[in-house]
Write a structure and sequence with these properties.
398 residues, alpha/beta, Rossmann fold, 2 domains, twelve-stranded mixed β-sheet, 12 helices, 18% strand, elongated
């Protein structure tokens, strides 16, 4: 109101003649007009008192804020958590899974199962009718065959038609430039790429370092930090306005930099550093760390842990033990809880863990982003999966 100029189109009684007379008395804004007493406006405009009161009421209703009773607004039920498909991981996250409107980050060294765990999350979300998952692939690691294996490993066997519909609700887009990633997230916040009758429930970005490492030899950090700022602002807007759960993939790396002290950077529990620098450390709301462990004596299985590194609603240090098999992400209930101390677990040989699927990741060249239909029960190649694969946004970065 304070900056809105008085113009003749605001009310029929505010003619050009009246506006000029008001301007001569330094009444140029809506606020200055409203705060002046009616008696003074009578002398300036020569309008009847009733007309002045009517104009002021109209301007106040149009530009001023309103005080309303909160009881007049119906309470909206909180969105239900999105189950990851792994009960013990849902228990670790509390509430039953991923919270809509929250930003998560899966981090760890290369080969710790971050991509496979994200595929499991996406597969479980699209099982619900009308729910859609959007997967942004920056490394060509997305595997349609692995998604089919995860869906087929469910206790309730999906028919071929149900399997096709579920896989079609995963939208895949390959992006190879940071500015295009920011643009895509901004467009998702406006509802683009979402068909009628479907709700975007989950956004996965795999992964961020592969894009920002393009700036590792840059002489200035202004551009990469600026793009990171725009990205996190766009992600928070998307999460809050559309109640979307967001999962980001990041790396932990070992770095030796002269002059670096431990006080400047936060170390992972395993002694590694988080990629993307100190600036990114506080960006996600919850960060989960995936770690590999040695083989248990006498067993061919490989064990991993998923640990809460930082969170604004979970207790840091809580963890579950995971096992990598060929059958997909599943929880096995044994005699021991999965939320254990890893050292004690490996010494005792206890059970109660998650299974993270293994297998080689597959993808196409950056220029190939099409998929063809085939029998979903007997996929002959990775490119045959019935997934909605969006056109590439690949272009030369420099």
């Amino acid at each position: 109101m304070a900056a809105t100029q008085l113009t003749a189109d605001l009310h029929p009684l505010l003619t050009e003649y009246v506006i000029k007379k008001l301007q001569k008395n330094r009444l140029t804004t809506v606020y200055s007009f409203v705060k002046v007493e009616v008696e003074q406006l009578l002398k300036i405009t020569n309008l009847p008192a009733e007309s002045i009161v009517l104009v002021k009421k109209h301007l106040i209703d149009q530009f001023a804020g309103r005080c309303q009773n909160a009881q007049s607004y119906p309470l909206q039920p909180a969105p239900s958590p999105l189950s990851t498909g792994v009960p013990s991981l849902d228990a670790l996250l509390q509430g039953g899974g991923l919270l809509p409107g929250h930003i998560y980050e899966l981090c760890g060294e290369s080969g710790t199962g971050k991509t496979l765990l994200s595929l499991t999350m996406a597969s479980n979300v699209v099982k619900q009718s009308g729910s859609m998952a959007y997967f942004i692939d920056t490394k060509c690691d997305f595997s349609g065959r692995k998604v089919q294996q995860i869906l087929d490993s469910d206790d309730r066997k999906l028919s071929e038609q149900e399997l096709g519909h579920a896989m079609a609700r995963i939208r895949v887009e390959r992006i190879f430039a940071p500015d295009l990633l920011v643009q895509t997230v901004e467009e998702l916040a406006t509802g683009r790429y979402v068909d009628e009758g479907t709700n975007l429930k989950l956004l996965i970005i795999d992964s961020l370092p592969s894009l920002w490492y393009l700036y590792q030899d840059a002489q200035s950090s202004v551009e990469p930090l600026g793009l990171l700022t725009k990205l996190i602002c766009s992600l928070r807007k998307l999460a809050a306005q559309r109640a979307v759960a967001i999962v980001l993939i990041n790396l932990t790396v070992r770095m030796v930099v002269e002059g670096m002290t431990e006080g400047k950077r936060k170390l992972c529990p395993n002694g590694n550093y988080l990629a993307l620098g100190r600036y990114w450390e506080s960006a996600p709301g919850t960060r989960l760390l995936l770690e590999r462990h040695e083989h248990h004596p006498g067993s061919s299985a490989r064990y991993h842990t998923v640990q809460v590194w930082k969170s604004n609603y979970l207790r840091s240090g809580e963890r579950v033990i995971v096992r990598m098999t060929e059958s997909g992400v599943r929880t096995f209930f044994g005699g021991t809880s999965s939320r254990l101390n890893p050292g004690r677990f490996f010494r005792s040989g206890g059970f109660g863990f998650l299974n993270i699927t293994t297998g080689t990741s597959s993808g196409g060249a950056p220029s190939g982003a099409s998929s063809s239909a085939c029998s979903l029960r007997s996929i002959k190649s990775e490119s045959c999966a019935k997934l909605h694969l969006l056109p590439n946004r690949h272009r030369p970065f420099l």
